[in-house]
Amino acid sequence: MTPADNPPSSPLPRGSTLQEELAYYKVQYEQLEAELQDFQASSRELEAELEKDVEASEKRERQLKEKVEGLGFEVDEWKTKYKQAKSEANAAQNTLQKEITTLRDTNRTFQLRLRDIEVANDDFERQARNTTSSLEELESKYNVSIERGVMLEEEIKIGEQEREALRIESQRLRNELSDLKIEAEITQGKLRLAEATIGRHHDRKPQPLATQHLRNRSQA
């Protein structure tokens, strides 16, 4: 399994909340960690199987060489059998050589894959560190946002208190204005009554003595 077999989750959509971003990066981190463990276990298994195959091949080669050497001492007595055994040994040796070549190529392929896995592991570890750093940064921003939210709530409470005080003051001023309007109407009524009374006095045209008497009373 290579890193391309299990691509990361879909990109984080724009406009996500801090909680969604935190959850997204946590899931990415857990997936990367699981894939890293799978790669490490797979590489260990491949190395163990390769060592077993190489040991088995070497053992078979030694056995065949011993058999060829043993047949060499019986050449004179067993020429026919020797030729047949030699042919079989040569065939077996060729087959073994092919198997060894195949195993060497397989070993080389495994080494290249192991190197790619190590590089992928390094990439995953670096990406995991970056994800951890991003999570820490997001948590810090989230805490700052919570603190700002608390401060804004306090400011809203203070603003509501000030607005209530202004509403009470406005109602008091409205009441005072209403009282002043009533007093002004009363004063205007009295003024109109006084003007009407003065007009009636002028219309009566009193005698000189009466006028003098009114003037004396007015001066008094």
Automatic annotation (TrEMBL):
Residues 134-215 form the NUDE domain. Its main location: cytoplasm. InterPro entries: NUDE, NUDE_dom. This is NADH:ubiquinone oxidoreductase. It is found in: Cytoplasm, Cytoskeleton. Keywords: Coiled coil, Cytoplasm, Cytoskeleton, Microtubule. Residues 15-190 form a coiled coil. Belongs to the nudE family. Gene3D superfamilies: 6.10.250.1080. It comes from Cryomyces antarcticus. Residues 196-220 are annotated as: Disordered. It holds the Pfam family NUDE_C.
